[in-house]
Amino acid sequence: MKKLLKATLALTAIILVLSLLGEAFMALCFPQYTFKGHWIVPLYFWIFYLGALLSLDTGMTGVAFTRYIIGFKAVKMFASVFFITIAAFLMRDNVLPVLFTFFVYYLLLLVPECAYSIYLKKHIK
Question: Cα-flanking dihedrals φ and ψ of residue 91, to 5°?
Fold first, then answer.
């Protein structure tokens, strides 16, 4: 439980820092793309990764972990497409900023995702 709490706090800190930096960057470099709906993208990723952390079994074997990662990537891809479709439909006036923000978060969060996956893979019993 202690590892889960640390991972949750780390995830929250990463998302919070990215959202603060993202808002500052968008306001500074692309003032025409600032709108109040930017918070929805970091919230989506926080909820998605929190769900992935909560569904992670700590007593997995190497094969089970590989299956989990493959399933996680597939669910992430389909959930992301679904989210983008819904967000584009609901925020028609701000489709470009939402897509740009989502793409940036998706790419930036690959780094901690891969690092945490490597860490978990090394510490499987």
Answer: -115, 60
User: Which pLDDT tens digit goes with each residue over 40-57?
Assistant: 888 899 999 888 888 877
Q: Using H for helix, E for strand and C for coil, what is the string for 27-85?
A: HHHCHHHCCHHHHHHHHHHHHHHHHHHHHCCCCCCHHHHHHHHHHHHHHHHHHHHHHHH
How many angstroms from the chain centroid is the CA of residue 116?
A: 13
Cα dist from 122 to 32, 45, 82, 109, whole Å: 45, 25, 32, 20
pLDDT average, residue stretch 79-90: 91
